[in-house]
Amino acid sequence: MASQEDPRVLRTRQLIKDAFGDLLQRKGFDAITIKDIAQRATINRATFYAHFEDKYALLEEITEQAFHERIPEQAVNASEFTDEVCDQLILFAHRYIVDFYRICRMDSKSIGALVDDKIKKLLQQTIEGIFLKGNVLYTADRPHAKIVSAMTGSAIYSAAHDWLTVGENDRTDLLLDMVRPYVMNGLGLNRNGEES
């Protein structure tokens, strides 16, 4: 079996991802078949299945890869949850959602729900990592950190998502002004990420 680092494997996986992305723009997720992806990628179905279990696994990998490529490095490496980190995560979530809905045909509720769940989970993990690095209280109480990061990530993601449909999409400054105080006050943190 070829290594995941083998250039041929990487090239084939990228062909599959590119084909899938192209099909998402044209057909929509529900209408895409493995046969469609294989034909577009100029591979056979067996080759597709050698790399991915199904189109859901492919969607999950693409979503996770895009998340890690786009999330601000400063937020990932932060050791305190400050206003600046909060702003970065809000803007990141907003940009990700806008780009996702612009690139993908959204005639399928299933793809939206899958991607939303995945991004919320990844955002939660990022926030939990920040909490665990910078707050002794959370380090001692990991379940508490997990719950608080889930609530924080959900608040950020939900606000950014709703801003797409009901907000003034080009006014991210207003989004920040509404969401940041809500999140920071809910966490009981001041502007520097210290407990108030």
Automatic annotation (TrEMBL):
DNA-binding interval(s): 33-52
A GO MF term: DNA binding
Top-rank taxon: Bacteria
Transmembrane annotation, as ranges: none
Keyword DNA-binding: yes
Cited Pfam families: TetR_N
Keywords, sorted A to Z: DNA-binding
Keyword match DNA-binding: yes
Residue ranges occupied by any HTH tetR-type domain in the UniProt entry: 10-70
The protein, known as: TetR/AcrR family transcriptional regulator
Organism: Cohnella zeiphila
